[in-house]
Write a structure and sequence with these properties.
This protein folds into two domains: about 55 residues, no CATH class; about 100 residues, Beta Barrel (Barwin-like endoglucanases), CATH 2.40.40.10. The protein is built from four helices and six strands; from the N terminus they run αααβββββαβ. A hairpin with a 5-residue loop joins β3 and β4.
Length: about 170
């Protein structure tokens, strides 16, 4: 019976590959979808690779921005560096990422400091901030980009991209 399960998995994978190849010959690209459903990929990293593969093909879409909110931004760093974020990634304070209470993981957000006009584009990969009145928590490198290291917080405008930005 053990061999039957492996044969079933391989048969399913073979069918997916054949269907993917057939459909891609007709102008559709299912490679990212195929990786997501591959029974041999069991890790968060594999899911992230599949997500990156599918979003990398969206660069031909418009980079239309949608205003989400205005409010205070803060940053988080040292004590969270190396820990798991809410979406399962390992937090790296040197990447341009952020925590937002409700935007979907993977959303690209342009954060503009309303005091100096500087902006940075970050990807949502965590939940927070958990302090009343704050709309986003930035990684330390994102905070440096818009100049909030001295004050710790600053008023910002958040705008989401319709697709992955080409910055």
């Amino acid at each position: 019976m053990r061999h039957g399960n492996h044969i079933s998995s391989l048969s399913f994978l073979t069918i997916l590959i054949v269907v993917s190849f057939t459909v891609s010959q007709n102008g559709f690209n299912l490679s990212g979808i195929l990786e997501s459903f591959n029974p041999f990929y069991k890790t968060v990293e594999a899911g992230q690779r599949a997500s990156l593969a599918t979003t990398a093909n969206t660069s031909d879409k418009s980079e239309e921005l949608f205003v989400v909110a205005e409010g205070k931004a803060s940053y988080y760093a040292d004590q969270f560096h190396g820990r798991r974020t809410a979406n399962g990634e390992t937090f790296n304070m040197h990447k341009l990422t952020a925590a937002h209470p409700s935007l979907p993981f993977g959303t690209w957000v342009k954060v503009t400091n309303l005091n100096n006009g500087k902006d940075v584009v970050v990807r949502i990969n965590d939940r927070g901030p958990f302090v009343k009145g704050r709309v986003i928590d930035l990684s330390i490198d994102a905070a440096k980009e818009i100049g909030i290291m001295r004050s710790g917080t600053v008023r910002v405008k958040l705008e989401t991209y319709g697709s992955q930005p080409s910055t």
